[in-house]
Amino acid sequence: MNMKLTKFVSIGIALVLGASGSILSSSSTALAAEKIVLTFGPIRQAINISDLEDFAKDGTTTPTLQQIIRFSKMDAQILRGLMGLEIGLKPANLARVVYSTPGEKITDEIGQAIRTQRRTESGKALRAAMILAAGDDGKVSLLEILKKYPLTEVYVDVASISAAVGKVQSLAGNIQSLLQDVMRSTNRTTETTRTESPIEPRRSVQPTIPPPAPRRAEPAPLPAPAPQPVRPVRGLW
Fold it and tell me: Which among 158, 202, 206, 229 has most CB atoms closer than 10 A?
């Protein structure tokens, strides 16, 4: 699964760099969700993505979908509206934001409701799905995210769908401020890199040669004795 998710993260980065729509189209069809597992507490109900598309389109429900709606006591029309609600998000801006620290936190939270089977790397898979969904027309919906999910199976907590859609709306509403935060953070990192002094190469340490021992000072010569006065010889004068 890690290799598959890494592939779709690369697609998200390509979007930032201005990848063409044809590349996105061919890549997104290589792997996408085929089965949706709707969960409510301990209840698990698998449904085909095509059945969910029909439900979002004209309200058609299958026995499986009717059962999960009955268990969750969720209004069918509200669920249908949440599935098809489109939220405008430019793919390039979205990619920059969701791969930032604040964006990863938001998408990790949404990934608790739209998740992988083992609840691992749900945020990473969701980020790839959102970017791919926005790449088609600059809009995302819950149904489009599920269709672009980079795994053949995706789990959806029915009780958390409303909160998840609300967080996507909040992300869209704050996309500009989040994008500005990302740009400021990038600029600060760049400025810090420029102002850092270069590291000088470490000089090799030469072996230390001990200084020569100091020469012993020669003792100073003793002073010459003072001359004695000549005593006169008695009897010469």
Answer: 158
